[in-house]
Amino acid sequence: MTIEWDAPSHVGGVALLAYEVWFDNGAGDFSSISAPVAIPGPADTQLAVTSLTNGVTSGIKMRAVNEVGAGEFSDIVYLICAAKPGTPAAPTSDAATRSSITVAWNEPSATAQATVTGYSLYINDLSVGDWRRAYSGLGYPTRQVATITNLTVGQSYRFKISAHNAVGASLNSSEATFIASDFPEAPSQPARLNSTASEVAIAWQPPTDNGGEIIGYYEVHHKLASEAESAWALVANISDINTLEFLHTGLSAAVDVQYKVRAKTNKGYGPFSIRNTFVLAAAPTITAAPAKVQSTRNSITAEWLFSSEGGSPITGYRLYQTYVRTGAETLIYDGSNQPTVSSMQVEGLLEGEWYKYRVSAINRVGEGALSPLSVAMISAQVPARSAIPTFLSATSTTITLGLQPTSDNGGSAVTAYNVYATAATSDGASSETYTKVASYDGLSMQFVLDNSAETSFATGQIYRFSFSATNIIGRSSQQLGHNRLGGGCRDSNCPSSQPRAKHEDLSLHHMGSGGSCGRLSYRRLHAQCDEAGHRHIDVRLQRLSKQREAVLQRDRAGNCATIRVQRDVSELQWSQPAEPRAPSHSLRATDWVCEASLQHIHGLISDFGLGPSV
């Protein structure tokens, strides 16, 4: 044992001669000790004492000697004859959080026969070279763990430990580095990238919190959905932490498959993700664009068909709409759970605007790829029916018609008008087949049909006309007219020398006295609306033998207008109806298409001397 001391501050005025070092008997008793262990010289301040018993504690006192004699003894100290503790092993980490690290250590294997009295833990944050004591456990020899707090998350720290006994501190242990971190959280639930009947490709997102430490790799575990929990098996370690994808091939199960994933850091394994179940099938496909079924000014109806269900039944469809003006696309129908719906009427559209559509099919695998975009579709409908063609005049080779534009273009500009005609008999019967009049220019609102250009039209033939408007959607329904091209008496009893009434619709014939030919002609020559909304109708009464004509003008409501008689008429002159006047005869037109009360017509015949009956 080597001891040391300090020289006394007062030597008594004379020079020191020596020191006396006294050891007890090992039990604290100095009475049996007759002489000092050693007498060092006056200049000494250290003494190596040998022949002591290892591990025995001795009491030690000493005094100084000068020429006068020995001074007083110092205080007694008790020292053990032993070495410092052996060097401890490097510390380990028992636990860590984002702001703390719990460090543990073991007692040195060599204690030099002196009980360890405690430990000191030192820390360095790697940013500077200085070490500081993070824990002092002197007096607590059994405490071999310490938690160091207020650390920076993700920061690495170095630690070393030393042991203490009555002799002193051991050498420092080797260093150990730990990170202030926690276990990583679970990754996201695996999602299907694609699948077939024999493989599944999955992907996942990293944990929202890696615990403060870099993730080393991911484990992918797999089992069949029908298997017990004990069937989970590791199928892949994914070390490429930037890809986070896994393709599992060689599958042939007839049941669904399940996957779950967990992350691994130096801290350890985090918890597993939520499992996900996948069907061994592909997503459905639709290769044809949606087609238009019909449209109105504010709606479009589209339909579609799937191309392949991918091995799993279709569970529904989603329809997407692109507004052509802006290019913006929106989901307008989500029929995820409506597998039988394969068409959709999209309502609330802007009139006359263009839209495009595409659709996707859904099965248990998920939503398939979107179909190609449809052709542009307009929210419009065919134009409304135009007004009936109006008879303006006729010759033996022409008929002049008045036309009116449609009052409603259906939401899309009218691109053309068309005139159609079909031959009719004198009683109004006609074919249902109408032929487009090629010479009409499609724009003019007055049209002269000339049979020198339209050679299929014959003089004296009655024709029924129709007029329609066309827009981008199609052609409106037709409005029908009924006019004769040219003229001619159609009764075989009428002499050819008699005046020929033009443009008649309905003829009622009777035989007058002396076998003369008489005829009552009921005709709609003009059918035009006045400001009050009434249609004017011309009814002409004619007795050919007397060349006398009675004209009755009436409006659609049945109000009488004017009755006049014309004599010596060789060619009938047709004119616009006059303004209505007070009624003088009651002839009611219940429908301007040629229905009238024959009783009243009979009365008119008598009034004008045309005969008692027809």
Model description:
- With 614 residues, this protein is mainly β.
- The chain folds into 6 domains: 2-80, Immunoglobulins (Immunoglobulin-like); 92-179, Immunoglobulin-like (Sandwich), CATH 2.60.40; 191-278, Immunoglobulins (Immunoglobulin-like); 291-378, Immunoglobulin-like; 390-484, Immunoglobulins (Immunoglobulin-like); 506-607, no CATH class.
- It is built from 1 helix and 40 strands.
- Strands 22, 23, 25, 26 and 27 form a 5-stranded antiparallel sheet that branches. Strands 30, 31, 33, 34 and 35 form a 5-stranded antiparallel sheet that branches. A 4-stranded antiparallel sheet has the order 9-8-11-12, with no helix packed on it.
- Strand 15 (217-224) and strand 16 (233-238) form a beta hairpin.
- The model is unreliable at 484-614 (pLDDT under 50).
What can be said about this structure in brief?
By secondary structure, this protein is mainly beta.
Relative helix content: under 10%
First CA to last CA: what distance?
A: 164 Å
Count structural domains. Answer: 6
Using only C-alpha atoms, the radius of gyration works out to 60 Å
Point out poorly predicted stretches.
Answer: 484-614
**Approximately what portion of the residues adopt beta-strand conformation?**
35-45%
Number of strands: 40
Number of separate helices: 1
The average pLDDT score comes to: 79
Structural class: mainly beta
Outline type:
rod-shaped
Characterize the largest beta sheet: strand count, sense, and whether it forms a barrel. Answer: 5 strands, antiparallel
